[in-house]
Amino acid sequence: MGSARSIKAPEGTRDLLPDEAAYWRNFQKVAIEVFGRYGYQPIDTPIFEQTDLFVRGIGEATDVVSKEMYTAISGGNLRQLLAGEPLRTNARLSLRPEGTAGVVRAVVQHDLVPQGAAPVKLMYAGPMFRAERAQKGRQRQFNQIGVECLGADAPSIDAEAIVMLMRFFAEIGIRPSSMRLLLNSMGCENCRPAYRGKVRAFLDEHNGELCETCRARKETNPLRAFDCKEPGCAEVMAHAPHITDYLCDDCREHYNLVKELLDAAHVFYEEDPTLVRGLDYYTRTVFEVQVIDGLGSQNAIGGGGRYDKLAEEVGGRPTAGLGFALGYERCVLALQAQGFEFAPVQSCDVFVACVDESLRHEAFGLVQLCRDSGFKAEMDHQGRSLKSQFKLADKLGAARVAILGPDEWATGQVKLRDMGTHTEILVSASDLPNALSRALL
Ligand code: AMP
């Protein structure tokens, strides 16, 4: 009789086993704490949204939307489609490939920034989904933490968010010297179209040297050629016109103020006029944080920028916005490259051991008493000998073992053994939680 074929997690996904799952929760706690100091409050939006939100918000010509979304048509609508009926626009749902579009949709839907109101500052954490070619640091389901600030276009919002992002990376332990912060301005609807035209004309001149993808991109999204990894295209793009030479006065002033504020905060950055980032919604400031070694080509641990047109794209009134997202898995890879390991989860404060089988019921009651008093308590469930109960207690990292023996139990007492010093004291069973408090807290 053959055993059933074993089923593995889908390609590009990863199980977070207990030590790491605990670390991921702690990572989020640090983010809530750090970003909370800057006024950011948590928001949770659905993991899937109407496909149209991403098409309109992120842009149809982006890789994320055109190639990488997981899109589903639910049962009833699928029947409609098969019957040849046209699909309603809300019948198509996609797993979110990023967090910004959903948060902006929620801000518009719930009118979180009424006219004249102070900006709203929101943060999220959770899984994102992109059907990419999986490799180290590039998954199909990955976790991001991100922030969005809507309702203010001041450069101080951009600078504050960048300072905050670098602060977070430092607090989780990524060495500042191992990171570099790249900064650019993408201009606005007034200056970018002319620049985009310049890049298109430049690409036309070099058509013969470009890869097929860049030739196609030239029409839809010429700036994406800056991100092409083909050596020929990279060579061409090294000589392409720079957006920073074409910024309008307002965008230039905005960019200069962001840089001044970063200088004042002693946050070091490198200006990179080729940084265009993959999503269509960015205007003005864009930034990316990369780690210098250990991550290979997937070296961006976070990035973001300003998106002053996005709220309108998803049906809201004009509302300035700025945000960033950081990738949890890549932060872990960066930390591991520095020697970081997950701390084992301490799962047991006290182990209740039985000298003989007849006291199991009493042990069961005592374990509940300890748990109800807030201690992590465990007992054996497999009929082990006393010796192997001790071994198990050790393995679980129990600081104390409460030993139930018939003689002590006859007087309502248990022995409480300190697993560090091997000393034992007698305590009354009903007083065990107090004895543990005195010993452990
Ligand atoms: P993006 O939304 O593309 O700007 O990504 C923001 C951050 O999310 C990146 O800097 C990465 O750290 C992380 N990230 C993006 N795509 C992936 C992926 N496929 N797998 C793992 N992390 C990712």
What does the model show?
The protein has 441 residues and is an alpha+beta fold. The protein folds into two domains: 18-191 and 247-337, 2-Layer Sandwich (BirA Bifunctional Protein, domain 2), CATH 3.30.930; 350-440, 3-Layer(aba) Sandwich (Rossmann fold), CATH 3.40.50. The chain contains 16 helices and 16 strands. The chain has helices at 18-37, 51-57, 63-67, 75-82, 100-109, 155-172, 192-205, 212-220, 231-237, 249-264, 310-313, 328-337, 360-372, 386-395, 406-410, 432-440, and strands spanning 41-42, 48-50, 71-73, 92-95, 120-129, 141-150, 179-185, 270-271, 283-291, 300-306, 321-327, 350-354, 377-379, 400-404, 413-418, 424-428. The strands form three sheets. It has an eight-stranded mixed β-sheet with strand order 1-5-6-11-10-9-7-8, with helices on both faces. Strands 13-12-14-15-16 form a five-stranded mixed β-sheet, sandwiched between helices. A three-stranded antiparallel β-sheet has the order 2-4-3. α1 (18-37) runs antiparallel to α6 and α6 (155-172) packs parallel to α10 (249-264). Bound molecules: adenosine monophosphate (AMP). Adenosine monophosphate (AMP) binds at residues 98, 130, 132, 137-139, 142, 144, 278, 300-303, 325-327, 329-330. The site of adenosine monophosphate (AMP) has 18 residues, from β6, β10, β11 and α12.
